[in-house]
Design goal:
Blueprint: H1 21-30, H2 37-58, H3 89-94, E1 99-100, E2 103-104
Antiparallel strand pairs: 1-2
Helix pairs in contact: 1-2
């Protein structure tokens, strides 16, 4: 079964999209999966069922439905920014193991 998105037009009648074992093997190879014969058959059935649902979706008339990025209302999950006083330089330097000229002193990184 090789389909392209433009292969079917609205109104085309497609009864089933059953995958072959060869197609399942190809998909498994692309996904780098090693499947037993039983798994191949099970995935063939499951993937074919999923594709059949897509066939049903093709029958829906969506001409009057505007494009949407989400069905949920747009809202921010972030809180509003609140200004808080920061630490003063003395409090910051108090936690440093070594300081020099109001800066952190660290061991040399390069020789």
């Amino acid at each position: 079964m090789q389909l392209r998105s433009s292969a079917f037009k609205r109104g085309d009648i497609i009864l089933s999209m059953t995958l072959t074992l060869a197609e399942v093997e190809h998909i498994a190879e692309l996904a780098r999966l090693r499947l037993t014969p039983e798994e191949k058959e099970r995935y063939r059935e499951q993937l074919s069922t999923i594709l059949d649902y897509f066939v049903q979706l093709q029958d829906l008339d969506t001409a009057d439905i505007p494009p949407t990025s989400s069905v949920l209302p747009s809202r921010s999950v972030l809180r509003e920014d609140e200004v808080h006083p920061g630490l003063n330089i003395h409090e910051i330097m108090r936690n440093a193991p070594e300081t020099e000229n109001r800066q952190f002193r660290i061991p040399p990184v390069l020789d």
